[in-house]
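Quiz preparation item.
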């Protein structure tokens, strides 16, 4: 009988060792899973901080856009009337700045080339412009500019240079085909060049303007500087680009949060499974020990 108990004790000792090894292995896996879970939680917190910052900046810029900040009083009144239905949108394509898309990082260059034309309202026909003009007169709202499609001819010959020494600004503007002649008419005499010296060497025609990479404007007998300091708050096209960029950042951050949440659920389920398995093994071990002691 003593030998029988010794054998049972030996067997129990082996089971204890096996259970201990299994327990330690599972505990190690649980610890690793908890590290992964904390890492994911930290990533979500960082993402949420970025999201809050992006959303705050986006709302600020959208508010500027809603109020048509940067446009003349007459244009603001007209755009608000078009938005709220006070004036019919029939025959109205919209304000030029919202109908074009500058190539990324060339927003300010395009804005300098188009200038005040960016707030021009693009319409189909002459009568559309007259109808809107009459509305502004009745309101006493001020100045607005209208572009009537179909009458613009992009026939200006382009200047040429070597090794991208001179590039037409119109090449940095994406737009619907219907607007291409208008864009050619408005920006066809504007070119991007490296610096002031390059511009001065080519500036022989009073009808041609050059914009340097440092955002100086060079015309015959005239140089204007300081535009490089313009911010997204005051630049209409840079603001539009920044709104699009922030919207994409927000969408990406939200997608990342969803992916992180899915991974966290997988890790948490695996952790709970391991904990349940350990508890079950512990119950079995206790039951066997009690049998032996009895």
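Solution:
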């Amino acid at each position: 009988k003593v030998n029988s108990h010794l054998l049972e004790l030996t067997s129990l000792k082996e089971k204890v060792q096996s259970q201990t090894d299994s327990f330690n292995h599972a505990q190690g896996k649980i610890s690793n899973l908890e590290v992964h879970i904390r890492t994911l939680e930290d990533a979500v917190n960082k993402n949420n901080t970025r999201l809050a910052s992006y959303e705050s900046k986006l709302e600020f810029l959208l508010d500027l856009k809603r109020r048509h900040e940067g446009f003349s009083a007459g244009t603001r009144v007209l755009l608000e009337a078009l938005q709220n239905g006070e004036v019919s949108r029939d025959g109205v394509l919209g304000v030029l700045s919202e109908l074009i898309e500058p190539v990324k990082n060339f927003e300010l260059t395009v804005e300098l080339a188009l200038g005040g034309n960016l707030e021009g309202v693009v319409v189909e026909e002459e009568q559309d412009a007259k109808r809107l003009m009459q509305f502004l007169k009745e309101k006493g709202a001020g100045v607005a500019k209208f572009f009537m499609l179909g009458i613009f001819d992009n026939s200006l010959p382009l200047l040429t240079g070597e090794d991208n020494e001179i590039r037409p600004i119109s090449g940095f503007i994406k737009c619907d085909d219907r607007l291409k002649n208008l864009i050619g008419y408005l920006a066809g005499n504007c070119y991007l060049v490296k610096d002031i010296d390059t511009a001065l060497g080519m500036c022989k025609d009073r009808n041609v303007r050059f914009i340097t990479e440092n955002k100086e404007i060079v015309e015959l007998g005239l140089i204007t500087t300081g535009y490089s300091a313009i911010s997204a708050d005051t630049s209409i096209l840079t603001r539009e680009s920044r709104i699009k960029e922030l919207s994409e950042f927000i969408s990406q951050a939200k997608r990342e949060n969803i992916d992180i949440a899915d991974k966290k659920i997988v890790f948490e389920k695996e952790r709970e499974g391991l904990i349940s398995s350990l508890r079950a093994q512990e119950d079995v071990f206790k039951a066997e020990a009690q049998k032996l002691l009895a």
